[in-house]
Design a protein that fits this description.
This protein is α/β, with parallel strands linked by helices. It has two domains: 203 residues, no CATH class; 163 residues, Nutrient germinant receptor protein C, domain 3 (GMP Synthetase, Chain A, domain 3), CATH 3.30.300. Strands 1, 2, 3, 4, 5, 6, 7, 8 and 9 form a nine-stranded mixed beta sheet that branches. A four-stranded mixed beta sheet has the order 10-11-12-13, sandwiched between helices. The longest helix has 31 residues. The N and C termini lie far apart (107 Å).
Length: 410
């Protein structure tokens, strides 16, 4: 009986010791697993909204647009918000280095808080900087852990620093203006990752939206203005080669399948006045073909639009008139596409429209054996463009307005 009691007491004692040991280990783990020992408070961060890349001689000039939380808080609500936007919710800091990484390191020394790049949604690269090559910038932007690979990339013939220094009256910062333009697909919509993929891919080219600065209102500060899209910057290999504006830029976007937010005037032969069509949808498809060692490409464009202006004397509801307008629109799109093809194939000998990607996808073995000769193949390739147009709406009215004796229909 006594042996049994001793055995039970030993068991109880062992369980008690194990319980105390486990409790001690649990308490010790709380000390080791403390989650806030290396924290950085938000108040200690300098939040970057946009980045600009310029050159100064043979050095890189890096500009950061930094959010000012104190000004943002003081400008909330009521009429004070417009005053706050013009007084500035952001500031810029610039640093120069032998490369972009060194410039960023020197930039930190000019800011009293820890620079945080995780909210950088816009990168502006000047054409002058692009002429020296984009590889080092892309390598840094994709390698540095804080920078978003989905940040929008824009080009400018001005200083990128001047674009970031703007104080738009409508938005809180020029970074927000640029981001909204990217979301609206005004021009091309290219991210850091897209840009790297296009330059390193089989096409070895890219197209960026080109940003300019609106002239400020008379008597206002020159910085109280907005950036706006005008034209495209063409990149061959990793360097800037040419700027194109309308109408050539329209043809380039058409073949890139990125033509959006555009109203096109159409002239009708034998008719006074003109018609303007707003593009509703566009789809451009590429179909490659290799037959008897001859490489060719078929481009199919399907465009739908609505009439937003009719200054002729004829009703667009008339089937004959409707057919005529669709035909003229088709001819204009075809002409724009052919001009953009001539620029790519004959003048710059660069595959801006992703032909190489389609050939590699459909004919991987032949592409692998001929990729070194791609520039020559592209220049001599037969390309067929077929455009189909459809007017889906005549707007709120069918007949032209303001014509004497004309009835009005809504």
């Amino acid at each position: 009986m006594k042996k049994r009691k001793r055995s039970e007491s030993k068991t109880v004692s062992a369980k008690s010791r194990w319980k105390r040991t486990s409790q001690a280990l649990t308490l010790l783990s709380f000390l080791v697993l403390g989650g806030c020992w290396d924290r950085i408070e938000v108040n200690d961060l300098a939040i970057i909204l946009a980045t600009g890349v310029d050159t100064r001689g043979d050095q890189v000039e890096l500009t950061a647009q930094i959010f000012i939380p104190r000004k943002a808080g003081s400008g909330m609500g009521g009429s004070a918000s417009s005053e706050a936007s013009q007084s500035g919710l952001t500031m810029i800091r610039t640093a120069v280095g032998s490369n972009v990484a060194e410039a960023m390191n020197r930039l930190q020394r000019k800011v009293s808080r820890n620079v945080f790049w995780g909210h950088c949604e816009v990168i502006v690269i000047s054409e002058q900087a692009s002429k020296q090559g984009l590889r080092q910038y892309l390598d840094f932007f994709l390698r540095y852990t804080q920078i978003r690979e989905h940040a929008y990339v824009f080009s400018t013939d001005k200083k990128a620093r001047d674009i970031l220094a703007l104080l738009p009256p409508l938005e809180r910062s020029s970074a927000e203006s640029l981001r909204e333009m990217g979301n609206m697909k005004l021009g091309t919509r290219v991210t850091v990752l897209n840009l790297a993929q296009r330059i390193e891919g089989p096409s070895r080219s890219a197209v960026l939206s080109r940003m300019l600065i609106l002239s400020p209102t008379s008597g206002q500060n020159k910085f109280i203005s907005d950036p706006y899209v005008r034209g495209l910057s063409l990149i061959k290999e990793d360097r800037y080669v040419k700027t194109v504006t309308e109408p050539m830029s329209v043809g380039v976007l058409l073949l890139l399948n990125q033509l959006n937010n555009i109203i096109m005037p159409i002239d009708l032969e034998g008719n006074k006045g003109a018609i303007s069509i707003r593009l509703i949808s566009l789809r451009t498809t590429l179909t490659p073909k290799i037959a008897n060692n001859k490489w060719s490409m078929k481009i199919k464009v399907d465009a739908k639009g609505e009439v937003v202006l009719n200054t002729t004397s004829k009703s667009i509801a008339d089937p004959q008139m409707n057919t005529m307008v669709e035909k003229q629109w088709k001819n204009k799109l075809t002409e724009l596409a052919n001009d953009a093809l001539m620029l790519s194939q004959k003048q710059l000998k660069t595959d801006f429209y992703g032909f190489a990607i389609e050939f590699r996808r459909h004919y991987p073995r032949k592409w692998k054996s001929q990729q070194e000769n791609w520039e020559s193949i592209l220049e001599n390739m037969k390309v067929e463009v077929k455009v189909d147009t459809l007017i889906t709406s005549t707007g709120k009215s069918t007949d032209p307005q303001g014509v004497p004796g004309q009835s009005v229909h809504y």
